[in-house]
Design brief:
This protein is mainly β. Helix content is 8%, strand content 42%. Strands 39-40-43-47-46-45-44 form a 7-stranded antiparallel beta sheet, with no helix packed on it. Strands 12, 13, 14, 15, 16 and 36 form a 6-stranded antiparallel beta sheet that branches. The radius of gyration is 30 Å and the shape is elongated.
Length: 551
């Protein structure tokens, strides 16, 4: 059954080159297998074999000669891409990026992001900037800069020495390419962003007026042009052209050309003046290889490639293939009947060698990024031009303290065990009594602490809160349950870290464990007591709930 181009986010079979005019990372080797029974080896992007039959687990692509393999603990081990691959350090990491600008961002368990060289030596650590934790970084440098994000969600850029070159003042930011980056600021207090273009010093050089959203997979300038929706912008932020109404979409430029799709789901080629170079006639897509083109037709689950000259004359045609990609400007890879083989630019097989597997980008991914093999792989794996490396450092004790320091000898903040409903309503607006009719429980707003930790309070009264006649002002608070919301805490082992921190906090203020119950509110609880406090504290199994009960 024919699949509509837009329904799968367009084609993506096409040619792209590792050698380009961008500063984006360069893929040097990719995983492959000679036969199904083999282990994985690594192949250079020109098709020559570096080594074979070496790894049980699928390696990553190699960037500038460094790749990763996951071990049995699902952690990353880094290797040099040599004929005899060697691990660069015995240390493994729970997260990590690519080898660019001479460094690699890596993360050890419960540690902030650090940077190592190609020999595994730690060079520097990214902990905080101006008192704010650095939460994540992009996995690679481009134009010598790497985007980072603070715990407050603000974005900036560092250089390869870990120095902040552009301060984190943006609400959204994307990687540099061609010496510019697209950034956005929320200036109106709502969700609307104002997007602009900055240079490598952080100076705004243009505003992208009319651009309301920038997508994760289309956020860079390519060939001096940024495309969004039906518009093409230059680096001054000026509109180059607006596509005709009958064009449904057109893609980022690859040199002088890009693809458009019309309202009949047919694809053609336009130039930077918005002029049609090849009329819309391909049902899957068409892209340029420098001055030549490849048109793609799709029927059922198979694809046909037409190799065209600069006058739209067909040179060669390959039919009924399953997948296609190109590693260099003169060598492509075809997947046909579960075998992979190399072709030249004219579409002819280079030799008789076949492989059972070569790790190539998906059709869609390679289509979006004909300028960059690296970005095509990144999109295949992350549906984005970015991969964020997340810090695993989390100030669990500080975070717990920030939400539990409301505990006092009688209750939580202004709310006390035994307090009447009438007294509690001085601090909390409970609204109309009808919504509490014959309820014993109500939710009170908690606080937001540091590290994205939040609480709310579940209050139980001794008697119903209200009935048909109105509020029962004399009922009193029996239980206060502090619900600790850690849904936005992204570090590893968050449950254990915060459990240990909560118990440690209680011990530090004088509570000791005095009992245990297996079945209260369908949970297990440990009971803690302090003679100076008028209540017991019951802590559930993962310390996501602390229940205060009068002695």
């Amino acid at each position: 059954m024919k699949t509509n181009l837009l329904s799968i986010i367009l084609l993506s079979c096409l040619f792209f080159s590792c050698k380009n005019n961008t500063s984006l990372p360069e893929v040097t080797q990719v995983p492959f297998k000679v036969s199904d029974s083999d282990k994985y080896g690594m192949m250079n992007v020109d098709g020559s074999i570096l080594f074979e039959d070496e790894f049980d687990q699928l390696p990553s692509i190699a960037v500038n000669g460094i790749f990763t393999v996951k071990n049995k603990q699902d952690e990353l081990e880094y290797f040099k891409a040599d004929k005899k691959p060697k691990q660069i350090t015995e240390t493994s990491y729970i997260d990590g990026g690519y080898y660019t600008e001479g460094v690699i961002p890596v993360v050890k368990s419960e540690r902030p992001i650090s940077f190592i060289d190609k020999n595994g030596k730690e060079l520097f650590v990214l902990g905080t900037f101006e008192g704010k934790r650095i939460q994540s970084v992009n996995a690679y440098f481009s134009d010598g800069l790497m985007m980072f994000v603070t715990e407050e969600g603000k974005c900036g850029y560092i250089n390869s020495k870990g120095q902040v070159v552009i301060k984190p003042t943006f609400d959204v930011a994307f990687p540099f390419n061609e010496k510019v980056a697209i950034v956005g600021k929320n200036t109106s207090g709502n969700e609307d962003m104002k997007f602009s273009v900055i240079d490598c010093s952080g100076k705004e050089i243009a505003q992208l007026k009319g651009v309301k959203e920038v997508l994760n997979w289309n956020n860079m300038y390519f060939s001096e042009v940024f495309t969004r929706g039906n518009k093409a912008f230059d680096k001054k932020g000026e509109l180059i052209f607006r596509s005709p109404a009958k064009w449904k979409v057109f893609l980022p430029f690859n040199g002088d050309y890009t693809m458009f799709q019309d309202d009949n789901d047919k694809c053609g080629i336009t130039n930077k003046k918005g002029e049609v170079v090849i009329r819309a006639k391909y049902n899957w897509g068409i892209r340029n290889i420098e001055k030549n083109f490849i048109g793609v037709e799709q029927s059922d689950s198979k694809y046909s490639l037409s190799f065209l000259d600069d006058n739209d004359n067909r040179i060669e045609k390959i039919e009924d293939i399953e997948d296609f990609s190109l590693f260099t400007v003169d060598k492509g890879i075809v997947q046909e009947q579960n075998e992979y083989y190399f072709i030249d630019r004219s579409g002819k097989a280079i030799d008789n060698n076949n492989y059972s597997f070569i790790y190539i980008p998906s059709l869609v991914s390679s289509f979006w990024y004909p300028n960059s093999l690296f970005l095509a792989y990144l999109h295949k794996e992350n549906s984005s031009s970015m991969k964020m490396v997340e810090s695993d450092y989390y100030p669990s004790q500080e975070a717990i303290s920030s939400v539990l320091n409301v505990l006092n000898t009688r209750g939580v903040g202004n709310i006390q065990i035994g307090m009447s409903l009438q007294a509690a309503m001085k601090y909390y607006n409970m609204g109309d009594s009808d919504k509490h009719s014959y309820d014993y429980w109500d939710n009170f707003e908690g606080i937001k602490g540091i590290g994205n930790l939040k609480t709310n309070y579940r209050i139980q009264f001794n008697d119903y809160i209200s009935d048909y006649s109105g509020y029962n002002y004399n009922t009193t608070i029996r239980h206060i349950i502090i619900n600790i919301d850690r849904s936005e805490v992204t570090c590893s082992n968050a449950e254990k870290r915060l459990y240990d921190a909560a118990i440690n906090y209680l011990k530090n203020i004088g509570f000791t464990k005095t009992g245990h119950t297996d079945d209260w509110m369908d949970e297990e609880w440990d009971i803690y007591s302090n003679d100076k406090y008028s209540y017991y504290i019951a802590v559930n199994k993962d310390a996501s709930k602390l229940c205060l009960e009068s002695k």
